[in-house]
Amino acid sequence: MENQEILDSDLAAKNELSLNSGAKDFLYQTAKWAKLLAITSIIFSILIIIMGLFFGTIMGAINNLGGQTMPNMYAGTLGIFMAVFYGVLGLIMMYPGIRLLQFSDKAKLALNTNSSETIEEAFKRLRSVFRFYGIIVIIYLVLIALMFVSVGIGALSR
Prior knowledge:
- This protein has helices spanning 2-14, 21-53, 55-65, 77-113, 116-156.
- The protein contains 5 helices and no strands.
- By secondary structure, it is mainly α.
- The longest helix has 41 residues, at 116-156.
């Protein structure tokens, strides 16, 4: 039994991944760029949320720029809908930015402390960013397919 544990520990040691200095440098540079992209993404998400909150006011001001006063349809139900829409859109767009920022911080910490657990957490955060964008792409492709189907049905119904 004791010999089996020794063999298992040797096998586990051979399966460990080690990074050379070049790979560590690339990962560190990637973490720095990820932090820039994350902060930019979070800032733009916050701007979209703010734009949503003041959508009715902004559209009313644009409406009054021409000198003609038209009914402000953005102040009513449409304004509330647009505020909620932009708020939700901004929050959804903020998610990958937060995860990317977490990846950056964890990757830098892992490289500084040489911690395999921390680098695993970093890559877990990065995986969630790619999973998010993958789901968005799938939704986008499904919507495009539905558009082509509806255009085809519309063309055939004439």
